[in-house]
Amino acid sequence: MAMGNVVIIGAGIIGQAHALTARAAGWDVTLLERDGRPLGASVRNFGTLWPIGCQFGPEREQALYGVARWRELAATAGFPLTDTGSLSLAYRPEAWAVLQEFAAAGGGAAAAFELRGPKQVAARFPAAQPAGLQGALFSPAEAVVPSAIALAALTRHLAAQGVALHFGTPVVRVHDDAVETSDGRRFPFDRLVIAAGEEMRLLFPAELAAAGLSRCRLQMFRTPPQPAGFALGSILVSDLTLGHYPAFRECPSTALLRARLADELPRHGEWGVHVIAAQHPDGSLVLGDSHEYASDFAPDYRTEVEELILSALAQFVRVPDLRVASRWHGTYLKSTRGVTQVVLQPRPRVTMVTAMGGLGMTLSWGLARQTVAAWRDEGN
Ligand SMILES: Cc1cc2nc3c(=O)[nH]c(=O)nc-3n(C[C@H](O)[C@H](O)[C@H](O)COP(=O)(O)OP(=O)(O)OC[C@H]3O[C@@H](n4cnc5c(N)ncnc54)[C@H](O)[C@@H]3O)c2cc1C
After folding, report:
1. 257-289 pLDDT, tens per residue?
2. From the CA of 13, how far away is ligand 1's center (Å)?
């Protein structure tokens, strides 16, 4: 029995996760996307499911639920998911201290972090740079999903589940009980989800501005498929990344590490460069990124930033083919108040979900579950 109409604006991962979750709970669902296919942050990311970046507690639980859901859907909707885990490599003593503190804080069967010495790393992960390595932390929870392929498969799955899809259909106005699209059509709703990603100027701009959000642009690139016989072996990161994610903030040595990195790598700090290397099923490596905060951006793709990423990469991984096959920018909203997700209710029955920063793909299914459960608790 249908519970009412849900309209969702935006077919990125947040919109698609809400569409499938609401449909499974019995709602009639309509998904409206301005482009002919999703082209936002959701198809411009690393494709890494990244619980290790999430704070211990409810957010990590939400992330682990997300990974489990992605795994189920890889099987049912038909897209690749590679259980790579992640390997955080420490080259500075401060970074090695952070990893040991992190493992201790998250110890126990559920977290299952494994500290590894340089010899163990060399034996299991030959792509990792051995020079200067102090130690590493392997975490089995992370995985790689090629996001453009996954989203296309999810879209087909949504259609098969009876979600009404309207692509090439920009929403220009939200009325009390219906949204209006640029061609003048109205789609009535009992519940509305706005999952419009970084678009903060069109729908409820004042509410978004009041929530303390900034646009953040990131620079990324992809290598050609690596030669046969090369395997990255895991998602690889190192010292710069430990200063970046909320999960590491609680470690006492993180402040020391950040201070040393700021001193040694000021240009990396200026451009917000930290480096993730993820190998995709076609053998290519997706590499990035940088973080530039502004309300709008110059069009340049900056070669200096790419050089900063490459120089940091060379410190921790040996890649046989570092030619660049493609380059792109991605943009998302990020909270200036340090929170990793923003859920607003600008009007009754309207939910806006945004500002997951670099963790939205990981958190998407947990956020959708939370939104749809809240409707049930409200008694529709
Ligand atoms: C470079 C980069 C790397 C990242 N790496 C990771 C990672 O490895 N792991 C991870 O978990 N997260 C990662 N993220 C974050 C993650 O990709 C985002 O948090 C997530 O994709 C946000 O999804 P979304 O659906 O909110 O936004 P989007 O994917 O941007 O989707 C919003 C959609 O709304 C549509 N839209 C906007 N306005 C309208 C309108 N008026 N009418 C109709 N449609 C509209 C847009 O066309 C778009 O398709 C990364 C992000 C970037 C940019």
Report:
1. 999 999 999 999 999 999 999 999 999 999 999
2. 7
